[in-house]
Write a structure and sequence with these properties.
Rossmann fold; 434 Repressor (Amino-terminal Domain); 6-stranded parallel sheet; about 350 residues; about 45% helix
Length: about 350
């Protein structure tokens, strides 16, 4: 017998019982004795039985699959967040279907119907630029959404995020305390979190009564090393380049390092550089990168648990589960990429 095709009826024939008995045993029904249950479970295992998730979903109205939509899969920040999500879903018997928009409007429109067609029980929106109409589409199918690191879609009811302004304030204050006054902000174009970080940066500069010169703001096309290098090229084409650069994330800082070192500029002696996220590579750069540590795994864990709570409330037929918003703080990681100007 092909193990891929083993059914409950096959197990019932081998065990000499009815197929409802096998079904109850495999689902820990109290009407089945522990001895019988163990015998049937062992037989199912030996025969290579794998539960049919689609069939089970028809009975429970649950497929035990969730969708996760990101802008890009290759961002190391999100790989750590997804690890946290998976740690929760695995223990709950859920699988994850991952897709990326690549910041393309056409993909954004196509992905939501695709998730619905796959029969997911809910969707984790991990910082994609979705509009309110797309969220209404999910609502029309009664599909719960959890927003991760993004409040940018209408009145999102279930949100978990890191306090962007708090993090960028710590980094900016660190540079100001070192004596920097010409500080640049290198952001990512069309990003809600980048706008939040820029707001925190401006507020901290103004609080320190330092000039906030727009020529020291640059919004790169991508939040990766390519965007970082693009921004560094612009900033060091200025008559008075900055003495410090606050990067939107660590990934962009990699591109800044590349440009500076290629052009004979020393970090931090000629220019201090900070990142944001504390991805794994940040401590292995030379010199190691000063950054803001986001609790990425915990962010994913929290998103997974939040989704499980929402689905549980749905199962209890709660028409409008209470809204929930969780804000995580992070910590400043001071390393060797920052020093006083002119040191």
């Amino acid at each position: 017998m092909n193990k891929k095709n083993v059914t409950i009826k096959d197990i019932a024939r081998a065990a000499g019982v009815t197929h409802p008995t096998v079904s109850r045993a495999l689902n820990n029904h109290p009407a089945i004795s522990e001895t019988t249950r163990k015998q049937i479970v062992a037989l199912a295992h030996d025969m290579g039985y794998v539960p049919n998730a689609t069939a089970r979903g028809l009975k429970t109205n649950r497929t035990r699959a969730l969708g996760a939509i990101l802008q890009r899969i290759d961002d190391p920040f999100w790989s750590e967040v997804l690890d946290g999500v998976e740690s929760v879903l695995h223990s709950e018997g859920y699988s994850l279907i991952i897709a990326s928009t690549h910041s393309e409007k056409k993909r954004e429109k196509e992905l939501l119907p695709a998730m619905v067609e796959r029969g997911v029980d809910g969707v984790l929106l991990m910082s994609p630029r979705f509009r309110e109409e797309q969220c209404r589409f999910l609502d029309s199918y009664n599909l719960p959404m959890v927003m991760v690191n993004n409040e940018g879609v209408g009145e999102s009811r279930f949100v978990i995020l890191t306090d962007d302004e708090y993090g960028i304030t710590l980094l900016t204050r660190h540079l100001i305390d070192m004596g920097h006054t010409r500080i640049a902000y290198l952001g990512k174009r069309n990003s809600a979190s980048s706008r939040n970080r820029l707001a925190g940066f401006r507020a901290e500069m103004q609080s320190a009564r330092l000039p906030v010169d727009k020529k020291y703001f640059y919004h790169a096309s991508a939040g990766n090393p390519i965007g970082g290098r693009e921004g560094a090229e612009y900033l060091f084409s200025l008559d008075k380049p900055p003495t410090a650069i606050v990067c939107y994330n660590d990934f962009m800082a990699v591109g800044v390092y590349n440009f500076l070192q290629e052009n004979g500029l020393r970090i931090p002696e000629d220019v201090s550089v900070t990142g944001f996220d504390n991805i794994l590579i940040s401590s292995y750069l030379y010199p190691p990168l000063t950054t803001f540590h986001q609790y990425k795994f915990e962010l994913g864990e929290g998103a997974g648990r939040m989704m499980m709570e929402v689905l549980s409330d749905q199962q209890k037929n709660l028409e409008s589960p209470p809204a929930k918003k969780v804000i995580l703080k992070g910590i400043l990681k001071i390393r060797s990429s920052t020093t006083s100007p002119g040191s």
